[in-house]
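Thread: Newbie trying to understand structure tokens

Hi all, I'm a second-year student working on a class project, and my supervisor (Dr. K.) asked me to get a predicted structure for one chain before our next meeting. I've only ever worked with sequences, so writing a 3D structure as a token string is new to me. If someone could post the tokens and maybe explain what I'm looking at, I'd be very grateful. Here's the chain:
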Amino acid sequence: MSQPPLRPADPVRPSFPDWMQGVQAQVDAALARYLPPGEAIPGRLHQAMRYATLSGGKRVRPVLVFAAGVLTDSASERLEVVACAVELIHSYSLVHDDLPCMDDDVLRRGRPTCHVEYDQATALLVGDSLQSLAFEILARADFGDSRRQLEMVRLLARASGSCGMAGGQAIDLEAVGQPLNQPELELMHALKTGALIRAAVLLGALCGTALTTTERDALDRFAKRAGLLFQVVDDILDCTASTATLGKTAGKDAAAEKPTYVSLLGLQRARELAAELRQQALVPLATFGERSQRLVQLTDFITQRRF
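---
Reply by user tm_fold:
Sure, no problem. This is what the structure looks like when written as tokens:
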């Protein structure tokens, strides 16, 4: 029996909130399928993996995957795989970041962090296992183009490692109590936060028809600005929103003497920088015309978020 045709992601008809909620629900359901069942041996580890991943969250990175997929008429089934792989990497990073040897936090997404709910050793294994699962589902999926699929695996791996997210975390740990200038701070967050956001955007576009060199360069410029924008807004929220609103410990960066855009620039200038970064992110999207509608809307969501 022939397989049904792949369905392109349809961005046009739903309002942005409805579209985003639909993507979040689709990704949540897919993550629940990809994660091992809690009763499977080793049960405690599998339960902790599900606890850490299925605990809510805005799923901004998966939504970025779907929004970028619109540019290349990407099939929803392929975007779902990529979105889950990216979210599994993100979830693993949160589990490890919260450990006492890292940021030592006790609250994540309004619940006890993984190492508090379970224990530190289990949390360490949860992060390891989520990372492995991300590459497993990406490698076993059928994208119809093995060379492009290998490029996708390479892109996600680099964004996750020492030249990406892990490297940014290492710089962050070294910078505690140390003054950083703005270029140094931007480099740290381009790796720690921006690398995975950039990967989400590029991976989403790789799920469909090929981009021209000009289009890929424009998308890359957008992704880099969007990643930095996300971090600046995060720094603003860390000092202006409550713990109940954030779902994590508010003011933790300031208490830990971590360099942030607010500590470096002040709150007002950080807000001005966020507005500038939003505009810088939107400029290259003009290359895609109406196809970039969801990315434009998502950029505004990132800029205006209050939680």
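A couple of things are worth pointing out once you decode it. The chain is about 70% helix and 0% strand. The longest helix spans residues 213-240. Feel free to ask follow-ups in this thread.
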